[in-house]
Amino acid sequence: MRPHRHVRCMIAALAAFTIVSCRLEVPVREMAQAKSTITRAHEVKAHKYAPDELKKATDHLMSSHRFAAAGDKGAATDTALKSLSFANTAVAKSLPLLSKDSLDAATAKVNEAASLADPAAKPSELVDAEQKLARAGQLHSESKFWESYLISKDIAPALDGFIGKQSEDLKQSAAQRLEAAQNALRTCRAAGPDDSQKADIDKAAALIDKAGNALSSGAYKDSIAASDEAISILNAATIAMEKKREATIIDTKKEKELTEKTDTDRRTYKVVYNPKKRDCLWRIALKMYKNPRLWPLIYVANKDKIKDPDLIYPGQVFIIPPVPSKKPSSDQKTDGESDDDDEDDDTESVDETNATDKSTDSADKKPSDKTETPSPKKNAPADATDAPEDYSDEDAP
User: Fold this and answer.
1) CB-CB contact of 159 with 208 (8 Å)
2) Are 312 and 278 in contact (CB under 8 A)?
């Protein structure tokens, strides 16, 4: 504020001297030149770049006024010329500095706008500002400092609106990315990471803290970059956990299938007492194989428990063997063999074995103090639900 006060004082003094100039001999031209140059020095901000020279110019001009008022024209002229000299020095010193600072400020503003803009679609405000900045730089290099300053000083205000809008959008985006990173961190921790993934999760947590600090300080792009890096780390950790979980599920499923297969291959059946529909090998085969004619498989697999295929007892536990794989088809057989012949041979072999066992073990049968299951021959079902229509006594044990 002081430089402007001095200017007002000088203007008032010059006005007073103008009134009396008709009666006094004063160096009006020299004093006017000094005053005009001091005004110019203020325009180029000499109070910032050349404060000492500006002060001396102002002080000498005031002294010139005093000498003129005292009627000392020579001293008034000398001090006015000295004021003019100091004012010119202030202008010469300030102008290039003013131009450079204005150019730097305009450059920083353009760079800020460029960092916020989409490189693929620059806004017209930014394109115009870049062109003006290039022109101001050229004028500065040509020592046309005042012209450069006049262009540079208008660049920043033209970009303020664009920068404000872009900054607000970027702030919202940074806040959204930070929230996404925080959600990803919570999800990842809830998934139960193992020790190999905890280090990555800790690193992501540190990045999220960094993103939050950057958002608070207005460094929105840095915040977004930190959040995105954290999200990338957490996504990789989540994928690794999912793959491991899927592998565990697959292994569990395979183990379960293997167990089920083993259980299927080694199934058992416990004989129950049912007066109305008593268990026999025929009915057990029907239940377990859906085919009653496969009862010899059960008998052969449990010969150590079944002394007579017609006599089984409640509480006995029989192994139910798997059905053997099918024999080769007729076109793969040799020597004129057929499936029917093989089946007949198998049946005859089992019958022969049964007959042998019956004759051998008949003396070892326990007395009737245990509840026996009726012989399939004696209790063969008469309805279609118990046996197929072609059921016959020869089919039952």
Assistant:
1) no
2) no
Residues in contact with 81: Cβ distance below 8 Å, sequence separation at least 6, in sequence order: 30, 34
Q: Is 284 in a helix, a strand, or coil?
A: helix
Q: Residues 115-140: what's their mean pLDDT?
A: 91
CA distance 150 to 156: 12
- Give pLDDT tens digits for 35-68: 999 999 999 999 999 999 999 999 999 999 999 9
In degrees and rounded to multiples of 5, residue 308 shows phi and psi of: -135, 125
The DSSP code for 18 is: H
**pTM across the whole model:** 0.51
* Whole-angstrom distance, CA of residue 265 vs CA of residue 154: 90
Say if CB 281 and CB 397 are below 8 A apart.
yes
List Cα–Cα distances, 91 to 38, 39, 52, 274, 322, in angstroms: 8, 10, 12, 123, 110
Burial of 180 (0-12, 13-18, 19+ CB in 10 A): middle
Q: Report the C-alpha gap between 364 and 361 in whole angstroms.
A: 5
* Contact residues for 124 (Cβ-Cβ < 8 A; gap 6+): none
3-state secondary structure of 308: strand
Domain spans of the chain, in order of start: 1-153, 171-258, 267-364
Residue 225's DSSP bridge partners are: none
